[in-house]
Amino acid sequence: MRMTQMQFRFAGYIFNLSWLGLLVLIICVPLFVKLGLWQYNKAELKKEIQTKYDASLDSEALNLPGELGYLDAWQYKKIKVKGNYDTRYQILLDNQVEDSLAGFHVLTPLKLEGRNDYVLINRGWVAGGAAHSDVPKISTPSGPVEVVGLAWIPSKKIFTLESHVENKVWNDVWQHMDMKHYQKSVPIHVLPIVVKLDAKSNAGGFVRNWQLPASRIATNMGYAYQWFGFAIASILIFLYTGIRKASNDIK
Question: pLDDT digit string (tens) for 87-98?
Fold first, then answer.
């Protein structure tokens, strides 16, 4: 007869070791711990991002050099640039929501003063029209402006069903900020960052309630504690269901 469990006696108690229960425990506990560490590490990463973001708000604005070097080092840095807006290659990022209203983010290239470089300025949110196909009219300062804002590095991990087939007609409504595609689509030299216009700036901005880069930290920590709790509960249930007083078996 195949043995499916073992018994251990100690201090007046019997522990019935179930091989099936042990197998489930061996699978579940490491899995729950791994999921907990995943959420915990996400929270820690967001805390680090939040610290950098807060530090940038209180720091002096930096000028953009011709060569940016390590691109990620510019993430959330405060930037100050001067130049003129060029609306020929302005784009509207679709599906942007503000106070439950659908609209667009306006991204306008700025020709940097004294240089042939351009940088995209996210000027903020504007409401869409009554129909989704209605593109709002965007007013833009015609003279030189000074822009202060935070650098944002667009993600390279983009899933889209949009076609990137070349088209002679400029499409000013985009679903995602695909920087590489944008740089290939325009005949100007665009630096690979976007500057989110400061809420206090008067350089042609719109609604700028920028979301914090590291939101939901508490949620991630909550999920981490939940998974760790599942791991502890699994161990306790395993022990509780296997331990009983030895006197119950004595006749």
Answer: 999 999 998 989
